[in-house]
## 1
Amino acid sequence: QLQLQESGPGLVNPSETLSLTCTVSGGSISSSNYYWSWIRQPPEKGLEWVGSIYYSGTTHYNPSLKSRVTMSVDTSKNQFSLKLNSVTAADTAVYFCARITSGWYYFDFWGQGSLVTVSS
Amino acid sequence: DIQMTQSPSSLSASPGDSVTITCRASQSITTSLNWYQQKPGKAPKLLIYAASSLQSGVPSRFSGSGSGTVFILTITSLQLEDFATYYCQQSYSTLYTFGQGTKLEVK
């Protein structure tokens, strides 16, 4: 069974960079049928897609965050990562990593989520 | 961006009832619409993809319909485990967007 697990600091200072890694187990991140995504959810709010990456390194970012987001993939470790710079309190959220199945492009496997709080 | 609007925002029902949740897209998205269930403190779970296809392992009391701009999630014979928040999500555009959510509560 595919599993995804987020890891990274739970507290980030304002203006600094948020960094998270998603480790994929039970399947290969290099499969041509899938993309890998980050989705975030501020406390008590809805879901916002942050961006997606293909195993080749091709990325798509939410335009509202594009100037601050960088995603990368490490196929040797079966991991993909998110960096969000110049963070503010508005970036406080649970960050989920998820798999997208190509074709109909739905998020079918999710990590448990990682709460990141932006505060000094 | 394609805006997704769900109605109602919240809904009260009793076990055994049937309920419907509507999701409207700001432009036609053909059938590129997915539904998720989220329980407190948990990740969303895929229920329906491509508007009406049931994800493997999801009970048949969940069903989806619609195309273009209006989509419906129907849950029949509500079970206690169905009380949760439901989200629609469009995949017509690679700028994926979600509805604001519908919270289904026990009456």
## 2
Amino acid sequence: GAVVSQHPSWVICKSGTSVKIECRSLDFQATTMFWYRQFPKQSLMLMATSNEGSKATYEQGVEKDKFLINHASLTLSTLTVTSAHPEDSSFYICSATGQRETQYFGPGTRLLVL
Amino acid sequence: AQSVTQLGSHVSVSEGALVLLRCNYSSSVPPYLFWYVQYPNQGLQLLLKYTSAATLVKGINGFEAEFKKSETSFHLTKPSAHMSDAAEYFCAVRGMEYGNKLVFGAGTILRVKS
């Protein structure tokens, strides 16, 4: 199956700093990428959808100025958590779709904000 | 809003026993249906998907699921559980009535006893 990578796999940062998470499709061109967040013992919640070269579409309740998404190429999307606070600590997962619309998920990034 | 329901947040089976994880959707038009598995601290792996072809779908690792329109269900089964099947399983749907986005159920944690 298709491979999606995320980097870093985990990150610890101080409150107030910004953190960038990368999501790459390794063996296919991803027309659409998705960012999810997952709190402990909960399901995945879609944060935003991004198409290459255009602005991301955010879900209701997700602050676009706090969670900056850039989808600069067909193989790379980045999520930047700006001015992170402890409540932003979570597991962030990206996924990508190619021509067949099946979503392939990355391994996730665990963010801990101290 | 349309929903996807997974009955049972935890399921425990003995090694070698039948695995049955339940999933029901609420839309009037059958959506695309998926089962994903998530191992601790990892992303999601696609087990199988239903996209309006055969109603009995075979996936990886010996899992299969049957789409039943009359019951609006897409239950996941495996004839004989292995210890390595212990993980969390998510049912997901995508269709017009779900905003054409992948919507996840709450997840079912499968425990396999030796």
